[in-house]
Write a structure and sequence with these properties.
Layout: H1 2-24, E1 40-43, E2 46-49, E3 54-60, E4 63-68, H2 74-83, E5 91-92, E6 97-100, H3 106-143, H4 149-183
Antiparallel strand pairs: 1-2, 3-4, 4-6, 5-6
């Protein structure tokens, strides 16, 4: 029974962590090195994240600089960024690559805010599905007479409390990201 509860809690936490990772990758008109997390370059035949072959830093509020440790990677990094879905054209000056993030329009902010809300709702649905799965496992244990009815009620309450806490975390993260988007 405790294993079922623990497993459900871990799955829910992973769902929330995934949401927060997705939020960190949203381009918000402000330079954020996380936008490059999904971009990979071919480094000696291995797909490698840019941050493992270059220093990625925020030089100004809306400018991201990428300084590769090996200058021969400049063109490779530039091409990888252009092929990605970031939507920003990198500027290569021969020693570093600059990415200037344009300010967001009001319409684009509202669109991103809706997308954030959708992502939050999708994560809530996932968390509730995990809860339902855990509740079914607890009911199955009761049916097999492996736990008592009191144990079942206690376990169901624990699972519901964990679910409520994770839903609150999702709401907080969603609200925080939406606020961040609208302030820029």
């Amino acid at each position: 029974m405790d294993k079922v509860i623990k497993n459900a809690e871990e799955k829910m936490k992973k769902s929330v962590q995934h949401l927060e990772t997705e939020f960190s990758e949203i381009r918000a008109g402000r330079a954020n090195p996380a936008v490059l997390d999904k971009v990979r370059i071919d480094y000696y035949g291995t797909p490698t994240p840019i941050n493992q072959v270059a220093a990625v830093s925020v030089s100004e509020a809306r400018t991201l600089t990428i300084q590769p440790w090996d200058k021969s990677l400049l063109r490779v990094i530039e091409k990888a960024i252009q092929k990605s879905d970031i939507g920003i054209n990198p500027q290569n000056d021969g020693s570093i690559i600059r990415m200037v993030f344009p300010p967001l329009t009001e319409d684009r902010r509202k669109e991103i805010k809706k997308d954030i809300a959708t992502m939050g709702e999708d994560t809530k649905v996932a968390v509730r599905a995990i809860r339902r799965e855990a509740m079914e496992k607890i009911k199955a244990l009761k049916k097999k007479n492996e736990i008592t009815e009191d144990d079942q009620k206690t376990a169901e309450k624990k699972i519901q409390d964990i679910t409520d806490a994770q839903i609150k975390n999702i709401d907080k993260a969603t609200e925080k990201k939406q606020k961040q988007i609208m302030e820029i």
